[in-house]
Structures are given as structure tokens and as C-alpha cells.
Structure prediction request, 404 residues.
Amino acid sequence: MVTINKNYLKLPGSYLFSTIAKKVADYQAAHPEEKIVRLGIGDVTQPLAPAIIDALHKAVDEMAHAETFHGYAPDLGYEFLRSAIAKNDYQDRGCRIEADEIFVSDGAKSDSGNIQEIFGTDNKVAVCDPVYPVYVDTNVMAGRTGEYNKERENFDGVIYMPCLEENGFLPELPKETPDLIYLCFPNNPSGAAITKEKLQEWVDYANKTGAVIIYDAAYEAYITEEGVPHSIYECEGARTCAIELRSFSKNAGFTGVRLGFAVVPKELEREGVSLHSLWARRHGTKFNGAPYIVQRAGEAVYSPEGKAQLKEQVAYYMRNAHYIYNGLKDAGYSVSGGVNAPYIWLKTPKGMTSWEFFDYLLETAHVVGTPGSGFGAHGEGYFRLTAFGTFENTQEAIRRIQAL
Ligand code: MLT
Prediction:
């Protein structure tokens, strides 16, 4: 008889953003007259930059002719894109990363969910709390955790590193030694950034203990402050302990286009085995590459025009971030984030739980955000607003929240 993967049964309810989407859809159906402003999921609203659109058109035309048609992409991605990434995202920042250490994918969500497959199921996982739910849920599915603990509202067998106001929303080195450490900076959901000095401590710790850091740098384009690293490879020794994941979703608006990449340095080995070769094996077997058209669009992100246009796009969203941050502060909220990240993290008022505030905001201001507790037990009492809306909707949301 067929059996199922019972690890899935450990997961409570549906995926966070699916739950929110359903709640909002139900509310809208019951109140069709209300104009809801959505600052929940971190989905972009600005159209693709002209340089990207041009590259897409050109690539589509190439597909129309036998001489320039492209079928399956190379396993690890097209050389033109991998070289552009290696040069612009790494070598120009002084990081020693080569094109053949880059694995092009359909986005950082897939990579951050799939990367755990190359590690044993007996590995101990450490995550920040609150945390992007994909890291935890995919390890639950793989059987790397115990049961869901209703009292603690998290999973047995996972090392949770509380990121609280008193530690600047940054994790501290855990007492129990983990094998896999997930870090995301600038952080989703709190918007907190880590300094290079602090990140170096994690790299040193991982090299000392033999742990591997999965470093999600999806929001690096939003860094505005000096001393905040754009890549973990800015830290000495990261090549022997870290895998970095990047996305084109947030810096270039590819949420609906889909493109990302993972960096696995050739020096990174565990049990005498190269993690680069394991990931290459996994990638080659399970993935047939991001589309040629999309990889050409990705290449345009690094063209002079693309860079200039995307700088403006990021600035547009950061204007929203400042607007939300200042608007909430003026209204008496306790807020953080929004300086090196497109997320604003606020304390819920009047002792409301995160979900109570979600309902309150939806029902009274018709504004959607994301409840902090959806990201983990230590997110309780917090709430996330995204800066990825339009400026007009952002202004409207803040006006409504201020009027509460
Ligand atoms: C979020 O809202 O946390 C992100 O949009 C989720 C994602 O990037 O998958």
C-alpha cells in the first residue's frame, strides 16, 4: 500500500501567505465595496525596467528563428549570465567568486527550500525566530525536525535563535551547536541588517564548528548603510562554510518572471565531499534551467541602463519604506527596519496579538500586512508592512492607519 510522507502532517495549516490571501479574499468577497490596500506579501508593483523589457523582446525574437532558437539551457545556467553575476555581484565587490560557482535557478524561494536536500536528515538546523517560513517548513517536510510543539508554537528539534528588540533583532550564537544555520540579511521579516563585523563572527563560528551557513541575501539591493555586507563572501573564510542565495525578484521585479541563483564555492566540503558537486548533481537531475528568455532578461539587470533604471526602482520602494517608517512613528508606533530593507517591523499596539492586529487593520483600515507570529513564536506582538506597494497606496495605507 502506498504510504505518504508523514512529515507533511507535522505542518500546521497552510503556508503563511496562502492563509493571508484566503483571509483577504474572504473579506473582500463579503465587502466588495471596500478598497483594500495590500502591504502583506513582499510582491513588487513596479513594471519591469525598460532595459529588461528590451532584452526580453530581443530574446523572444531569437526564439522565432532556427539559427537563434534555444532549447534546454545548460545545467548550471548560461555562461553570459553567470559571468555577469560573478563580475558584478562578487568580483567588483572584492569577493572571490567564479562563474562556475554560480547555479542559476528559478528563484530564491526554490533554492532556499531545495538546498537542504544535499544534507543528511540527521543535521540539526538553526534558524532565526522570526524567520522566513520556507527554511523551517522544508526541513520539516524532509524529516529533519520533531513534531510541532503547540505550547512553544514551534518545532521540536530545531534550534530557534530569538531576534528581539533587545538584541537589535539579530541572532546570537546558539548554546547548542547546529549543523545548518539559516541566515537572511537584510532580514525578512524584521528588516534588520547585520554589520560585516557581526557576520564575520558567524563565519568564524561556522568554520570552527563545521556548520554550514545558508545565507539568503535576497534583499541586498536595499542596503543603504556603510559597513553592511552585500554578500557573506565579503567575510574572510566564508568560502569554506557558506552557500549564498540570491534573487532577481526584489532588486529587479522578477517575482512573476522567476530567476535567482545559488553560490556554492568549490572549497566548501563536508565529510570530504564537495557540496558544489552535490548541488550540481541535484540541479542537473531535478532542474532543466531557467528559460533562455529570462536569463537574457537577467543579464540586462547588469547592463549600464539596467543598473541605472533599477537603482531608481529600488529608490522608489525605499521612499515607501521611509514613508511607512516615519508615518508610523508619528502615529506613536514602535518601528524598526526600513533602512536597509523593504520591510517595516512594528510592535502591535495595545497588547494585541499579531493576528488580532491583522484582523483589526483589515476590518477598520482595510489595510493588509503580515502578522509577525506567522514568522515564528518570537514574532508574536509584531507586524510586518512591505514597501513594495505603489507610493499612492502606501500613502493611503498610512493615512488610514494614522486615522485609527
Ligand atoms: C515575503 O513576503 O516574505 C516574500 O515575498 C516571500 C517570498 O519572497 O517568497
